[in-house]
Amino acid sequence: MTKSISSGEEVKVLPLKHTDGDDLELPSLFELVKLCIAMIDTGKAFCVANKQFVNGIRDLAQYSNKDVIVETSLTKFSDSLQEMINYHTTLFDQTQRSIKAQLQTFVKEDIRKFKESKKQFEKVSEEKENALAKNAQIQRNKQHEVEEATNILTATRKCFRHIALDYVLQINVLQSKRRSEILKSMLSFMYAHLTFFHQGYDLFSELKPYMHDLGAQLDRLGVDAAKEKREMEQKHSTIQQKDFSSDDTKLEYNVDAANGIVMEGYLFKRASNAFKTWNRRWFSIQNNQLVYQKKFKDNPTVVVEDLRLCTVKHCEDIERRFCFEVVSPTKSCMLQADSEKLRQAWIKAVQTSIATAYREKGDESEKLEKKSSPSTGSLESGSESKEKLLKGESALQRVQCIGGNIACCDCGLADPRWASINLGITLCIECSGIHRSLGVHFSKVRSLTLDTWEPELLKLMCELGNDVINRIYEAKVERMGVKKPQPGSQRQEKEDYIRAKYVERKFVERQPASVSPPEHGTKVLPQSQEENMHNIPEKSPLAGEQVTASPTVRSNDSGTQHSADDSREHLASIISTNSLFEPEGEKRDSSVFHDSKQLHPGLQLYRAAYEKNLPDMAEALAHGADVNWVNTEENKVTPLIQAVLGGSLVTCEFLLQNGANVNHRDVKGRGPLHHATVLGHTGQVCLFLKRGANQHATDEEGKDPLSIAVEAANADIVTLLRLARMNEEMRESEGLYGQPGDETYQDIFRDFSQMASNNPEKLNRFQQSDSQKS
């Protein structure tokens, strides 16, 4: 709408095209608000339907609880989809605030005021027209009326000018505000979409490796299914050609069966009632009991509670064939097999189970000792650890039990679901996205609910925690007057704080300027260890030489066996002298060192690695210590090699997660894998092999870790090294570079990792046996 105002007495108002406010595009704004409301309602309905679908996936996962792969996959997918539903809900809420609420306010309030101004303008325009008409009608000779009409016209014109100017000003202001409101609401709407898609991208980026692994598993399952189908077809073909005139079925029994069932199959059982009827039932021998079931899902009925109290015999005095009787002190049970071979198999199985029950009940302590023997301990303890992992606390619960971990380390939001594995802290999803943008050399982010956690990594998270790290990285926050972000703070404020905290390290308590690198000749080992170092024979692991022990030969030659035992006793005495086999959780007394606060950061990290002091190690890294710092005065040993000498698995994992070189070698040409092999640290050997250690590297004597392990007769380490070498050769021959290896290889290493983290004493069989000898 435009208005023309003359500079003279007349103010001319031209008839305009859009006098009802259509030039403000009000119909379009009204329509946009209606469409926005419809979109929000539809989106909420979509979220409700999607949530029901996700609940259906969760129900299917619970129903498939016996299939670990299906249950785990469906649970992960349902959790991710639930996060996406939350993101959708947030998007629709922001849309409602940015478009619906904002534009509705503009249309209802500002346009209403504009229309009121328009009515006032039209009213004064009409009054001016009436004043002009009246002024024109006055006769010339009526001077009094002429003067009155002129005064009225002048006043009306003056009023019209003011109202017209106000009206035009309000139109211009409204036009400008219309542009601002539309663009501001649309910009807010687009930023909401940007955040939505960014969150979705981050979520599925975390899920992508798992989806890739699941796809590979499905390919393998498809191959296995095809193979099984071919085998079944061959069995069908064989069965069709087989002569069933005589039943030659052979039923085998296994006293050491993994599920505890020695033998099972169908038998006829004679009832104890007056009619002596025979019924076909599914019988099994398990847990030193004889039980049967009417149907597969029924609870078993116990026939004999303790096989030690019963006997079994043939029954030839009844009309039915293939019968035998199980007699206990209180009752007897008459049973019938389908053939003579099956009867003999059942009788032998019952007799063997009776003998086994006597053996097991008579000496339970001997059975427990047998389970922990070197020949079976590795596999059994691995399965126990795996079972414990499945039934125990989840990674989220275990990590959140550590001090300060129930809230985000950087903003304080409760119940964080993400973690930085190299820092050992928990984070909310927004702070985890900021940490991810810093780069993996500053922070490695993982999900506590979506990712699989290795036992040594989970143990590392439990050794540090938010309280420990914040005491280091936020030491000067209060003194500097810096305000820590809150959960509701803007993302930019959080990002600036996190970057200042971890990248620039502004809040770390700096060491005194007088601190300098160690002087020439400075020793970093405790005094007791330095003294013992001088007493080590020339051919010893700690003096830089391999123990010259001849390989153990399993034969009846007593002389050969004696030489192997001597070498092992010699190695055990060296180990005992230098106190390198302390329990994982036992920390070394730091009083033997100087004050670590006055050390050069590299030297502080070096000493703390030997002491198993993770907080001091984290502090040294915060002060700028090089994780691969080399002590030129101690045979070019690095903190990682010191961690090996200290005997701590979690200390090695912390250094590796922070970029330690697993293949750095000392002046003797020995890397961490060499030292771990010499000292018999099986868990560390397993860790280094998983982290890409080169087991083909040789020391100055030309010995690689495998030859050292063979000379020391350490069966566990020899097994790990040979498996790793075989897996490496298989991957090279098949061109599978960068792949983890086959399932058997992964399962064995997973079992060793579980034992090293949860039951390290089971991997000290070599040292324990030696100490018992001595």
UniProtKB/TrEMBL annotation:
<dbReference type="GO" id="GO:0008270">
    <property type="term" value="F:zinc ion binding"/>
</dbReference>
<dbReference type="InterPro" id="IPR004148">
    <property type="entry name" value="BAR_dom"/>
</dbReference>
<keyword id="KW-0472">Membrane</keyword>
<keyword id="KW-0862">Zinc</keyword>
<feature type="repeat" description="ANK">
    <location>
        <begin position="668"/>
        <end position="700"/>
    </location>
</feature>
<keyword id="KW-0967">Endosome</keyword>
<protein>
    <recommendedName>
        <fullName>Arf-GAP with coiled-coil, ANK repeat and PH domain-containing protein</fullName>
    </recommendedName>
</protein>
<dbReference type="Pfam" id="PF12796">
    <property type="entry name" value="Ank_2"/>
</dbReference>
<keyword id="KW-0677">Repeat</keyword>
<keyword id="KW-1003">Cell membrane</keyword>
<keyword id="KW-0863">Zinc-finger</keyword>
<dbReference type="GO" id="GO:0010008">
    <property type="term" value="C:endosome membrane"/>
</dbReference>
<keyword id="KW-0343">GTPase activation</keyword>
<keyword id="KW-0040">ANK repeat</keyword>
<dbReference type="GO" id="GO:0005886">
    <property type="term" value="C:plasma membrane"/>
</dbReference>
<feature type="coiled-coil region">
    <location>
        <begin position="111"/>
        <end position="148"/>
    </location>
</feature>
<feature type="region of interest" description="Disordered">
    <location>
        <begin position="539"/>
        <end position="568"/>
    </location>
</feature>
<dbReference type="InterPro" id="IPR011993">
    <property type="entry name" value="PH-like_dom_sf"/>
</dbReference>
<comment type="function">
    <text>GTPase-activating protein for the ADP ribosylation factor family.</text>
</comment>
<keyword id="KW-0479">Metal-binding</keyword>
<feature type="region of interest" description="Disordered">
    <location>
        <begin position="365"/>
        <end position="385"/>
    </location>
</feature>
<feature type="compositionally biased region" description="Low complexity">
    <location>
        <begin position="373"/>
        <end position="382"/>
    </location>
</feature>
<feature type="repeat" description="ANK">
    <location>
        <begin position="635"/>
        <end position="667"/>
    </location>
</feature>
<dbReference type="InterPro" id="IPR037278">
    <property type="entry name" value="ARFGAP/RecO"/>
</dbReference>
<keyword id="KW-0175">Coiled coil</keyword>
<dbReference type="GO" id="GO:0005096">
    <property type="term" value="F:GTPase activator activity"/>
</dbReference>
<dbReference type="InterPro" id="IPR036770">
    <property type="entry name" value="Ankyrin_rpt-contain_sf"/>
</dbReference>
<dbReference type="Pfam" id="PF00169">
    <property type="entry name" value="PH"/>
</dbReference>
<dbReference type="InterPro" id="IPR038508">
    <property type="entry name" value="ArfGAP_dom_sf"/>
</dbReference>
<feature type="compositionally biased region" description="Polar residues">
    <location>
        <begin position="547"/>
        <end position="562"/>
    </location>
</feature>
<dbReference type="Pfam" id="PF16746">
    <property type="entry name" value="BAR_3"/>
</dbReference>
<feature type="domain" description="PH">
    <location>
        <begin position="260"/>
        <end position="355"/>
    </location>
</feature>
<dbReference type="InterPro" id="IPR045258">
    <property type="entry name" value="ACAP1/2/3-like"/>
</dbReference>
<dbReference type="InterPro" id="IPR001849">
    <property type="entry name" value="PH_domain"/>
</dbReference>
<dbReference type="InterPro" id="IPR001164">
    <property type="entry name" value="ArfGAP_dom"/>
</dbReference>
<dbReference type="Pfam" id="PF01412">
    <property type="entry name" value="ArfGap"/>
</dbReference>
<dbReference type="InterPro" id="IPR002110">
    <property type="entry name" value="Ankyrin_rpt"/>
</dbReference>
<dbReference type="InterPro" id="IPR027267">
    <property type="entry name" value="AH/BAR_dom_sf"/>
</dbReference>
<feature type="domain" description="Arf-GAP">
    <location>
        <begin position="393"/>
        <end position="515"/>
    </location>
</feature>
